[in-house]
Design a protein that fits this description.
2 domains; 47% helix; two-stranded antiparallel sheet; alpha/beta; six-stranded parallel sheet; Dehydroquinate synthase-like, alpha domain; Rossmann fold; globular
Length: 382
């Protein structure tokens, strides 16, 4: 086990009706004037936006609004939000939505006090030294962005999807009411579940030894998602199952499962290029890539894959565990091949080169992958 420092500073308000207290939480931790950031029309139709605004007003918090976040959030809207925050004297940002909205809000929070272009943070030209405080009302369990410091943004110029990280954008609080997820479409719910599974597996496949405790914690989260996600799809208003999935999404990506180990993250790197080029749902891309990657790197540590098969799926052979994962994604009606996402091999080499900086770097830690490796994985997944 490696040395580690662990901190989980986000205050979680979990359960029924918790969104009613967003006003007091925002006033205490974000300030008296906040930017309310959200996606399309779903929170308006459901009445959630009205309830949040009422709570904010009752607490004496002034609201500036900016909606319109798309899946795979765009740089242009972030730039608009930064200028709006500056011109309106906003003191904090409140995101209502899932990972795309939260990531867009984080990017704006980083950019307000920075003199350069916010994209600098995503291409390694700068590190955020400060940010506006951020709060979240979570409506989509998937990304875990509600309790982490990562943010992913897509630059429309070049179709580049990139990650930035800063401790300064870890949300101060997250309001998590499983009831807010009852109306999520089945496909979106399934994609979110695939993202949660991927976050765990990116950590699970490590070369670090003597990490049995976090291995078993990872396996427990995986088992919980495997058990409860089909229930949610069959019974969308099953509060207990929704609660398990929502909490799993947070635990999977708040750093708790990272401690003492070094994760891989190759599949996420490859998928970011996929969704950057093709604008596919992140979870759907991961559902296709994960089994292909697993088959490609299997012989690097067959024993670990056999442990995954035995402990997670109660199967004996390493290959059976990979097949079980692919079969589970299929049962969720997620794609199993890139062709089902409208992706053919015409741009595989371009995608792999973008992923490796035109061949100047390798991605992943479990097995570092070069351009040829990534093309081979994509060929296996097509």
């Amino acid at each position: 086990m490696q040395n580690f420092v662990f901190s989980a500073p986000t205050q979680i308000f979990f359960g029924r009706g918790t969104e009613e207290g967003v006003g007091e939480a925002a006033k205490k931790q974000l300030g008296e004037k906040v930017l309310l950031h959200y996606g399309q029309s779903s929170i308006i139709k459901s009445g959630l936006k009205d309830r949040v605004c009422r709570s904010l007003r009752d607490a004496g918090v002034e609201v500036v609004e900016l909606g319109g976040v798309l899946p795979n959030p765009r740089l242009q809207l972030v730039r608009e939000g930064i200028e709006l925050c500056r011109s309106q004297g906003v003191q904090g940002v409140l995101a209502i939505g899932g990972g795309s909205v939260i990531d867009s809000a984080k990017a704006m929070a980083m950019g307000v006090g920075y003199q350069g272009d916010v994209w600098d943070f995503f291409v390694g030209k700068a590190m955020a030294q400060r940010a506006l405080p951020l709060g979240v009302v979570l409506t989509i369990p998937a990304s875990g962005s509600e309790a982490g410091g990562g943010t992913v943004l897509t630059n429309e110029d070049g179709h580049l999807k990139r990650l930035a990280w800063s401790e300064h954008v870890i949300p101060r609080f997250a309001i998590m009411n499983p009831e807010l997820t009852f109306t999520l479409p089945a496909y979106q719910t399934a994609c979110g579940g695939a993202d949660i599974i991927a976050h765990v597996l990116e950590r699970y496949f490590t070369n670090v030894r003597e990490v049995d405790l976090t291995d078993r914690l990872c396996e427990a989260v995986l088992r919980s998602v495997i058990v409860h996600l089909p229930v949610v799809l069959e019974e969308p208003e099953n509060y207990g199952a929704r609660a398990e999935i929502m909490w799993a999404g947070t635990v999977a990506h708040n750093g708790f499962l990272d401690v003492g180990r070094l994760g891989d993250w190759a599949c996420h790197s490859i998928e970011h290029e996929l969704s950057g080029l093709y604008d596919v749902p992140h979870g759907a891309g991961l559902a296709v890539l994960l089994p292909a990657w697993m088959r490609y790197v299997l012989e690097h540590d067959r024993e670990r894959f056999q442990q995954f098969a035995k402990r997670v799926w109660q199967l004996d052979k390493a290959e059976e565990g990979i097949q079980a994962l692919a079969g589970f994604f299929r049962r969720l009606n997620l794609p199993g091949r890139l062709s089902e996402l409208g992706i053919d091999d015409a741009r595989f080499l371009e995608l792999a080169r973008k992923c490796t900086g035109n061949g100047t770097l390798k991605v992943g830690n479990f097995v570092p992958l070069d351009t040829e490796d990534i093309v081979a994985i994509l060929e296996m997944a097509k």
